[in-house]
């Protein structure tokens, strides 16, 4: 079987087909920019942090996620933390990811089912009305190194 010399692109293939080196570079730049924009959109739900600090806004309950889980849950009996509120109250949560290398997730059954992916060094705020009484699981909705320890509970009292 003979292979045509035109079947395999040569070093100057793009020039022979009307694309100069600058055009090829522009195409690659657009592809790279598209990938970076997609990555930024994925994490755009998070609010910038104070470079791995955790400055909770007034009126918010703070949950710290890091290599020890939620608020050191790796060293606590699960579920941890346990948050108790009255039905009808406004719940303001501020979740900061103080982990320097891993993204962590945050979700609450019934109240934040879609969850949020929080990049290293970023924060996430969520507010909702606790309209249904019961026990609701707080959990990490993305796989991470301490995933199995990131389970808490929201208790809404009648």
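Q: What amino acid sequence fits the structure above?
A:
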């Amino acid at each position: 079987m003979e292979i045509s010399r035109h079947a395999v692109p040569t070093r100057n293939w793009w020039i022979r087909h009307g694309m100069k080196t600058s055009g090829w570079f522009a195409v690659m730049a657009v592809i790279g920019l598209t990938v970076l924009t997609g990555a930024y959109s994925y994490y755009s739900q998070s609010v910038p942090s104070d470079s791995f600090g955790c400055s909770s806004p007034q009126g918010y309950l703070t949950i710290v996620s890091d290599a020890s889980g939620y608020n050191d849950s790796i060293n606590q009996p699960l579920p941890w933390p346990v948050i108790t509120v009255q039905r009808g109250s406004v719940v303001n949560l501020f979740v900061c990811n103080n982990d320097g290398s891993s993204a962590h997730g945050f979700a609450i059954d019934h109240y934040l089912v879609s969850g949020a992916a929080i990049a290293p060094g970023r924060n996430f705020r969520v507010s909702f009305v606790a309209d249904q009484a019961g026990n609701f699981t707080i959990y990490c909705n993305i796989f991470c190194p301490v995933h199995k320890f990131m389970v808490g509970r929201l208790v809404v009292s009648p």
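Q: And what stands out in the fold?
A: The helical segments are 13-16, 21-42.
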